[in-house]
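Thread: "does anyone have the structure for this chain?"

Original post by V.I.:
We have the sequence but no experimental structure in hand. Need at least a predicted one for the grant figures.
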Amino acid sequence: MGSKVGKATARAKAAKAGEAMPKDKLKGKDYEKALARLHVELVKLQEWVVHAGLKVCVVFEGRDGAGKGGTIKAITERVSPRVFRVIALPAPTEREKSQMYAQRYLPHLPAAGEVVIFDRSWYNRAGVERVMGFCTEKQTQQFLHMVPLFEKLMIESGIILIKYWLEVSPEEQTRRLAARIDDGRKIWKLSPMDLKSYSRWYDYSRARDDMFKATDTDFAPWNVARSDDKKRARLNIIGHLLSTIPYKAAPRAKVKLPPRQKPGGYQETKYPFKFIKERS
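Reply from O.Q.:
Generated one for you, tokens below.
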């Protein structure tokens, strides 16, 4: 009964705000089927990127707990890590702090035949660094002024730049972060910085709004995905990604396994291999 009331309340709020009506959670079986179809297309995209020498850069941003990591994992699950490279940089070193701000990101931009996915990116300066006081307001404003120029240079060099912002509600963020506290599989995702940033929801909202005003350009727009339903968000984002990058089936020779060589007198060894214990 409680869940039905909650859904009705969410739908009423969405209707009042003029937003899309929340849908029922996607069933696991339906999600796996849809994801499998998209994975086939992602492999086709991968082969075309290599064949055509495309340079693709995908940026994922959003609040803590918005679902960036799970979405990136869904994208990269069935493709080659040599083509789809995921970049998640740690906090900058003292040396990196003294560099031009964008400098540490430049070596990671894609070369021909690569898709580079940034799990957080240069937009750290417009978000966490600004909100948590790791940079000055002057540095933030300089960054917001510089980014469209930087991204235009990227695009003019032949890089296909796609930017995603995952939008999570405060209620769903709370549920996800709280779930990490007692889950041994997820506790590593909850850092002291996450706890500090959690209390500053509206500071992050203001920072997000300023970032969009300055960097949501015609040549590098922000694509926003509602992510309260993680499974549906992943499917929506992958579908959008596939529709944004022009690709077709790359030419490939028909694959056939060659005959295996004859043993030529080989005898199975009696070496005492140390097999691991079979637990199931």
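V.I.: this helps a lot. The chain has a mean pLDDT of 92.
O.Q.: and The first helix runs from residue 2 to 17.
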